[in-house]
UniProtKB/TrEMBL annotation:
GO molecular function, one term: protein serine/threonine phosphatase activity
Lineage, highest ranks first: Eukaryota, Metazoa, Chordata, Craniata, Vertebrata
Top-level taxon in the UniProt lineage: Eukaryota
Localization: Mitochondrion outer membrane
Location, primary (coarse class): mitochondrion
Organism: Apaloderma vittatum (Bar-tailed trogon)
Record-given protein name: Serine/threonine-protein phosphatase PGAM5, mitochondrial
Segments forming a coiled coil: none
A Gene Ontology cellular-component term: mitochondrial outer membrane
A single GO BP: positive regulation of mitochondrial fission
Amino acid sequence: RREPLALINLKKKNEETGEEELASRLGHCKAKATRHIFLIRHSQYNVDGRADKDRTLTPLGREQAELTGQRLASLGLKFDQIIHSSMTRATETTEIISKHLPGVKKISTDLLREGAPIEPDPPVSHWKPEAVQYYEDGARIEAAFRNFIHRADAKQEEDSYEIFVCHANVIRYIVCRYL
């Protein structure tokens, strides 16, 4: 769903003339609307928590989420959905933001959980995941990209506005991969 030409069976030809009707068929696959995606990092959280459930938002983090929700609401856009990481800090951030966007559907997914999609280059001293983590997290975060980052469906008539609440490494990967 990234390139309309990829959605067409180029081997299929017009029965009468034997020619391909590429322009006509391509027109049916091109998006008429735009998907607007807002990538939001979760708010500040307790980094000293041992397990995910202990890594809850700090008072400053709650204030950050509150202000983010107010700002998103002030844009006057009709948001379609909030897709968020299933980790505690992203879930809490989403709950606070969503109070300012009543009626917007929330979807939790493990695909957007924090991880190490690729080894840092240059290396960083404060963060050294096991090598196997790059393969596991990288595949999962790539799956998130392929699942969520694409053009609007050809049947979509109006622009859509979606919010993704996730993590710094996931956002970095999505932006770099998109570019």
